[in-house]
Amino acid sequence: MLLPRIRNQTTVCSKLFISLNQFINQNNPLLKNSYSSIYQRTLLLSRISTSYSISKCSHSFSTFQPACYSSSVPPSTKEQCEKATFEHSWLNKYLPSKLVPYVLLTRLDKPIGAWLLYLPCAWSITMASYHAHLPITKTIYMMMLFGTGAFIMRGAGCTINDLWDRNIDKMVERTRDRPLASGSVTPFQALTFLGLQLSAGLAILTQLNYYSILLGATSLSIVVVYPFMKRVTYWPQLYLGLAFNWGALLGWSAMIGSNDWSITLPLYGAGVCWTLVYDTIYAHQDKSFDSVIGVRSTALLFGNRTRQLLTFFSASMLSLLALSGQMNGQGWPFYLVSIFGTGMHLFWQLRTVNFDDAADCARKFRSNKWTGSLVLGGILADVALENLKSIL
């Protein structure tokens, strides 16, 4: 009874604020700026309370069915809810009900994160293969091994993130149906599951040489600390980049047994800049909620300068990628596909993205699998060309 009452009272307040906002805009523009933050927060509170009340009702119908509410929610949010409802109904149809919460916890239904974690590994592996003229069988084996590891460790990272953020996730419409936030998985169950995930990740890591095992183990501290960063700094995307692109260092050492830092450090830096681009776009989905509940991000820090600053990070990514390629002796396919092709895709992203449309931000974020694939495609073209030359 209390939640509907709060919702109704907040809705009435928001309507009063709308009327007052219109009056101020028409009669006294000088008050507009000082008034706008109160107005926006009240509207957001109305949406949160309405969303929470309705989601509690929908939760009794289906644990994993998002609350797709009506007129108070923008069309972009409805589109995301409808897509999530389809994905969850698909999981419920084909998986045992007891497994569904754990699949959702690891985001296996949304593999884009695993691809973004895997692609820097693949860049490094193929560049090492090109550098040392290694057998194609070893390259394929390592790419398959790292692919498996990426899916496992991305799932572990999601579990760690959701353990940190379970109370925050309850207050954000895009995340409140996550298993820990909704209560379908308890913290103890998540910790037990995390132990299994890390054990599987360790089994993958131990297939590598000793140098790579030590190098890979050092990344775990960054992975664990990352979710805390959004509470203390406006640069959590930077810490995500440090964690997500560790494979740019690890892939090379797994192939060769050591690191050529003149090649791998620029490659790592390129990946970090790339993460700042795509994860800032991603963060714009939640910026209105984050600003109220105290979560920090580069989306909030950059504000209206986001497009210009992401252009700078995109240029930095391409410059560092070109430096890494030059140090590795890459051929013209690398510069044509990995540099020029990737640059054109980033230009398209930043020119067309609507930072105020959550659905468009999500689409542009997901399109980064093609950004990373273009980088990989240029390296693979170099490898293929070298093998062709050796045959002829």
UniProtKB/TrEMBL annotation:
<comment type="function">
    <text>Catalyzes the prenylation of para-hydroxybenzoate (PHB) with an all-trans polyprenyl group. Mediates the second step in the final reaction sequence of coenzyme Q (CoQ) biosynthesis, which is the condensation of the polyisoprenoid side chain with PHB, generating the first membrane-bound Q intermediate.</text>
</comment>
<feature type="transmembrane region" description="Helical">
    <location>
        <begin position="238"/>
        <end position="257"/>
    </location>
</feature>
<feature type="transmembrane region" description="Helical">
    <location>
        <begin position="263"/>
        <end position="281"/>
    </location>
</feature>
<keyword id="KW-0496">Mitochondrion</keyword>
<dbReference type="GO" id="GO:0008412">
    <property type="term" value="F:4-hydroxybenzoate polyprenyltransferase activity"/>
</dbReference>
<keyword id="KW-1133">Transmembrane helix</keyword>
<dbReference type="GO" id="GO:0008299">
    <property type="term" value="P:isoprenoid biosynthetic process"/>
</dbReference>
<feature type="transmembrane region" description="Helical">
    <location>
        <begin position="115"/>
        <end position="134"/>
    </location>
</feature>
<keyword id="KW-0812">Transmembrane</keyword>
<comment type="pathway">
    <text>Cofactor biosynthesis; ubiquinone biosynthesis.</text>
</comment>
<dbReference type="GO" id="GO:0005743">
    <property type="term" value="C:mitochondrial inner membrane"/>
</dbReference>
<dbReference type="InterPro" id="IPR000537">
    <property type="entry name" value="UbiA_prenyltransferase"/>
</dbReference>
<protein>
    <recommendedName>
        <fullName>4-hydroxybenzoate polyprenyltransferase, mitochondrial</fullName>
        <ecNumber>2.5.1.39</ecNumber>
    </recommendedName>
</protein>
<dbReference type="InterPro" id="IPR044878">
    <property type="entry name" value="UbiA_sf"/>
</dbReference>
<keyword id="KW-0999">Mitochondrion inner membrane</keyword>
<dbReference type="GO" id="GO:0006744">
    <property type="term" value="P:ubiquinone biosynthetic process"/>
</dbReference>
<comment type="similarity">
    <text>Belongs to the UbiA prenyltransferase family.</text>
</comment>
<keyword id="KW-0472">Membrane</keyword>
<dbReference type="InterPro" id="IPR039653">
    <property type="entry name" value="Prenyltransferase"/>
</dbReference>
<feature type="transmembrane region" description="Helical">
    <location>
        <begin position="210"/>
        <end position="229"/>
    </location>
</feature>
<dbReference type="InterPro" id="IPR006370">
    <property type="entry name" value="HB_polyprenyltransferase-like"/>
</dbReference>
<feature type="transmembrane region" description="Helical">
    <location>
        <begin position="140"/>
        <end position="164"/>
    </location>
</feature>
<dbReference type="Pfam" id="PF01040">
    <property type="entry name" value="UbiA"/>
</dbReference>
<dbReference type="InterPro" id="IPR030470">
    <property type="entry name" value="UbiA_prenylTrfase_CS"/>
</dbReference>
<feature type="transmembrane region" description="Helical">
    <location>
        <begin position="185"/>
        <end position="204"/>
    </location>
</feature>
<feature type="transmembrane region" description="Helical">
    <location>
        <begin position="332"/>
        <end position="348"/>
    </location>
</feature>
<keyword id="KW-0414">Isoprene biosynthesis</keyword>
<feature type="transmembrane region" description="Helical">
    <location>
        <begin position="309"/>
        <end position="326"/>
    </location>
</feature>
<keyword id="KW-0831">Ubiquinone biosynthesis</keyword>
<keyword id="KW-0808">Transferase</keyword>
